[in-house]
Amino acid sequence: MNGPTAMALVFVFTMLIGVPIPFAAGLATVAGIWIADIPLTLLAQSAYTAFDAFPLTTIPMFVLAGALMEKGGMSEHLISIARRLVGAYKGGIGLVTVVSCMFFAALSGSGPATTAAIGSITIPAMLKENYKARFAGAITAAAGALGSMIPPSNLLIIYGLVAEQSIPRLFLAGIVPGLTLGVLLMLVTYLIARKNNYGGTGEPFSWRPLMGAIWEGKWAIGAPVLILGGIYAGIFTPSEAAAVAVFYALFVGLVIYRQLTVKDIFHAIRFTALMIGSVLFILGVTKAFGQLVTLYDIPESVSFLFGAFSEHPWLVLLLIAVFYIFVGMWLESIPQIIIFTAVFLPLVTSLGVDPILFGIFTVVACEVGFLTPPIGVNLFVASKIARTSVEQVSIGVLPMLIPYFVVIVLLVFFEDWVLFLPNLAFGISSH
Amino acid sequence: ADVTLNLGYAAAEGSSYSILADKFEELTEKYSNGSIDVKVRCCTQLATEDEAFKSMQLGIVDMYIITNNNISPHFPLMDAFVLPYIFQSAEHTRKVIQGPVGEAFANKLQQDSGVHLLTFGHVGHRDFYNTERPINSFEDMAGIKVRVPKNEVMIKTFDAFGAAPLPLSWSDTPTALQTGTVQGADNGTSFIKSQKFYEFVPNLAILEHFSYFSPLFASSRAIGKLDDEQKKALFKAAQEAGEYQSTVMAKDIAETRAFLAENGMQVTYPDKAGFIAASLRVQDEVAAEKDDAFRTLISDIRAAAQ
Amino acid sequence: MLRKYLALIENHFEEVICGLCLTLMAGCIMTQVLLRFLFSSAAPWAEELAVYCMIYAVYIGASMAIKERAHIRILLLVNRFPKNIRLVSILLADILWLGFLVLMIIQTSIYMQLLFSTTFISPGLGIDQKWLQLVVPISLVLMVLRMAQVYYRWWHNDNQELPL
Ligand code: NA
Ligand code: NA
């Protein structure tokens, strides 16, 4: 039997009988290594080296910052602003969730962290208004993925490293597609909520309460200014921004809002530890998984296959998107970006696709992976908060994927709307 | 083919590493009459530079090209080649790595670590670029915030040059340069071009203070899969591929520097005397902290210059 | 009294280690930012220490997740089985999981032998990597112990629930 088939069978079988997902992936990797005839010590080595990269520290730091912002009152203020903006419509809290995630995405680089920080407040609120648990979880998971689209973004950092592209340029390019995604997600949320008659009890929109809420929440809105400002002013690097966010959240929670207790801090740390222990842990096994994908020549064969359509770059891009979404079901976003960027970037740049645009495209396509079972980190996080099963949230999230597909299609056919901002700031790049 | 060997490197396709890797693939397959199939994997697909050496010790990775300063954590003697201005001329370099010193070094590396060093590859030099001012003399270096890799010798060197070295991971460097977190850094000239630093860094000084090479390694497990004929073919292919890479890169360097000058960098050729004097002090200082094997290696390298 | 302390340690061991690691991690990164911004000087150890703290937090956190039954399982199929088969399925899954942990312990031990017999100095802190990487086998053993504990409690409570 060939390696990839054996790995898929082992993974599906062990997962279905109830082996936790990281360990099911580990057992599949054992099968793959065994067939590829390389020493099993690969597992031992990658268990450690998978985490041996400084930019990865942004994940636990952003999760911790999110938990502190939630307990210290910052998330509440963000949500209060969002509530005054869109709270009066059908699906009000759903819309609030999306808008809050967009705000939060501007200070967090991680999709799962955004899901956790906003969801832990808005999911209970949605459940109180009789939203179905799976819908509440799905909105948060889908909007939380904006965390890796709207800058700062872990995934764009990883892409920038592999593709050797400027990270500030990628960040600027991510803004408009991120906002577009957010607006489309709001649209879908509104339509579903109207159909199911969810919510819509918030006060009607008027300027004065909104201004009041913005003033009240100035320290919360100040966070993105501080974080992005600090990055662009050269005070700290994107990888360091997450730790700065932790201290900012501590400062605001302890000194400004005075809401944060020692017990809260302890809970935030505990939450972070559990989150990275059950979610980030999976990188330790999927790292070796990634190496096997390379050894089995999967990237080359796929690239060769797609190269056959080189007369139609749009078709190649669409095929890559479909492929990324399929692979994203099984592979975590970070290894996915590392392995396949190296393969596809030379192919698409030879077809005239801009590497910055391809970065945004890659991240949007891989973000769908956050939202597709079996390995979808945002689904895991959202289902935990909504106290429902991963399966339920996976069903609920299906309509929320439509905005992602729309943005992918927009990226395939138009490029100026993405490249406009970075070109304005840094001048047209000489590729 | 009877044996398949996976050869990885961390840099992008089209870099100087791919010149070595692709030539090695071609020659190995030719000299072994197709009985060895080399598969080249770029861009850390197989492993990163940090993990590749241990991977070869474990036998997980067959072959890898690792920049020499990333060998030091696994084989500290390598630090001798990281020292500033350790090579005094191209002639000196050639005498060291192709002569008895290089051979003894490769043997010791294999004895201590079990990893085979097949060729040193092209020996290039780092040049210094910065956003502050053109470097025309030793004094111009004063106070510039320089990104350095997390390497003790490199930090010491820039300290001795009067600059302010800041260790920063490579991943953060392009952003840090654009935002002013750091003001300068050093790399091989071709790398400065491929990273498009000329877009926003105005000054390039041809300092050639550090040497780097791209040694090609193979694991014992991989070598053990080959019969004597195949081993001979492999070693021969590696030697010739290394020489080929050196020739190509030496020709490239003048073109690359001209390209950088045309694309907005002011290229200066500062007087190296002050830098060399500071570097000799660094060399002695480092040697004093190390063991006898290290000091012997340094005096052997210096002796080859005579 | 001693019993009480042991119980306290047993209950909070992972939490405390993870908490210390996360705090130290945030502190290191902030130190690096401040040193560079205020004094233009560097702390080459800070970034490295932050990474090590993260690795410790991840592995010890994974053990904590076993204790708290927080690892993510897909129970779509399992929940459709009749009760006895459901139990057998989960038992088989946990035996496979345990098998994987044991295999990992063996493999990491082999890897540790290599680390103990060769050099691998961390570039920033200058300490030998073997001491740092020991966290992987140690936390794997801890995971096995936590699994045993989960089953021990399940057996003694003898309740009808699955040992999830
Ligand atoms: Na973000
Ligand atoms: Na997925």
UniProtKB/TrEMBL annotation, chain A:
Transmembrane spans: 6-35, 47-68, 88-110, 170-193, 241-260, 272-293, 313-330, 337-353, 359-381, 393-414
Q: Where mainly found?
A: membrane
Keywords recorded for this protein, A-Z: Cell inner membrane, Cell membrane, Membrane, Transmembrane, Transmembrane helix, Transport
What membrane topology is annotated for this entry?
A: Multi-pass membrane protein
The record, for NCBIfam families, names: dctM (TIGR00786)
Q: How does it assemble?
A: The complex comprises the extracytoplasmic solute receptor protein and the two transmembrane proteins.
Protein family membership: Belongs to the TRAP transporter large permease family.
PANTHER family attached to this UniProt entry = SIALIC ACID TRAP TRANSPORTER PERMEASE PROTEIN SIAT, SIALIC ACID TRAP TRANSPORTER PERMEASE PROTEIN SIAT-RELATED
Q: What is this protein called?
A: TRAP transporter large permease protein
UniProtKB/TrEMBL annotation, chain C:
Q: Which Pfam families match?
A: DctQ
According to the record, the segments passing through the membrane are 12-37, 49-66, 87-111, 131-152
| Membrane topology field | Multi-pass membrane protein
What keywords are assigned to this protein?
A: Cell inner membrane, Cell membrane, Membrane, Transmembrane, Transmembrane helix, Transport
Q: Answer whether the UniProt record assigns the keyword Transport to this protein.
A: yes
All copies of the Tripartite ATP-independent periplasmic transporters DctQ component domain together span 25-155
Q: Where in the cell is it found?
A: Cell inner membrane
Q: Which InterPro entries match?
A: DctQ (IPR055348), TRAP_DctQ (IPR007387)
Annotated family: Belongs to the TRAP transporter small permease family.
Could you give the subunit structure recorded for this chain? The complex comprises the extracytoplasmic solute receptor protein and the two transmembrane proteins.
What role does it play? Part of the tripartite ATP-independent periplasmic (TRAP) transport system.
Q: Which PANTHER family match?
A: 2,3-DIKETO-L-GULONATE TRAP TRANSPORTER SMALL PERMEASE PROTEIN YIAM (PTHR35011)
Task: Tell me what this protein is called.
Answer: TRAP transporter small permease protein
List the taxonomic lineage: Bacteria, Pseudomonadati, Pseudomonadota, Gammaproteobacteria, Oceanospirillales
